[in-house]
Amino acid sequence: MTPASVFPLEGGCDCGAVRYRMESAPLFVHCCHCRWCQRETGSAFALNAMIESERVTEMGVAPEIVDTPSASGRGQKVARCPRCRIAVWSHYAGAGNFVKFVRVGTLDQPDHLPPDIHIFTMSKQPWVMIPPGAKAVPEYYKRDECWPAESIARGDALRARIRAQENGARPR
Length: 172
Description:
- The protein is an alpha+beta fold.
- 19% of the residues lie in helices and 29% in strands.
- It has a seven-stranded mixed β-sheet.
């Protein structure tokens, strides 16, 4: 995990219209090598810092939310700058707007958030070399086996909030 002393970290899009500040360390940083992420980013992987939305302060122009298909079939909402179209974060269906998957490459200092884990390595590009000793799994992982204790506690609190919203939204 990244030391708390580097936070807050700021980032934004290429043109500078969308700016944000991560107020604390993320829950976990994924380097995803799945084919969906490759297609969506036009690169070999996506590097996302998973963080509670309320721990991200939005500054400048509000990003445009674009509904995008996903491998799960549930889709994701990608936040893009309305001017330069750079994707700054995503919201996945399971956690909705409660969690932002911040695109690490949009940080002003992305080197502070290396991946905690490489996922879906079974579909990684053959020329991508994962560093020796790096945590990597062929598909996905079990949160309780990989996340640090503090992130698990924060994740449990998030799950409770998500369940409460889902229960309140159901018709009676």
